[in-house]
Amino acid sequence: MHKDQMKGAAKDAKGSVKEAAGKATGNERLEAEGAADRVAGKVQKGVGNLKDAARDALKH
Predict the structure, then answer these.
(1) Could you tell me the pTM of the whole model?
(2) DSSP string, 17-50
(3) Which Gene3D superfamilies match (predicted)?
């Protein structure tokens, strides 16, 4: 597992919590920040997946 995958997963989880807190309190700004963090986390996980795939391809 690449470090980008772990960092992306953490950012995605943090975004989910922020988004849920924003919805629960009616804070649209917090909800939007959470959604943005989730997207950034998913992108970072994807980058980690690509790096893993490239490393595996170079081994074979």
Answers:
(1) 0.83
(2) HHHHHHHHHT-HHHHHHHHHHHHHHHHHHHHHHH
(3) YjbJ
